[in-house]
Write a structure and sequence with these properties.
Elements (H helix, E strand, L loop, with lengths): L4 H14 L4 H18 L11 H13 L1
């Protein structure tokens, strides 16, 4: 259990600032995520508005709470 979350967050941000950006590694990660999304069928919709009614109903339900 973390006793001081603010100190941990400062430490993590400091580590991120010190680490140089690896463009190739970041590109590989994005490509792997896109491939996984394709395999899961996330990008199969040809009509971008397909299923919009469900999305609107869920958004209304979430925002009304």
């Amino acid at each position: 259990m973390v006793r001081n979350p603010a100190a941990l967050e400062r430490f993590e941000l400091d580590q991120l600032r010190r680490r140089p950006v690896d463009y190739r590694q970041n590109t590989a990660i994005v490509e792997a995520l896109a491939e996984e999304a394709r395999r899961l069928g996330t990008f199969r919709r040809k009509d971008p508005l397909e299923g919009i009614e469900t999305i609107i109903r869920v958004a209304r339900a979430v925002n009304s709470v």
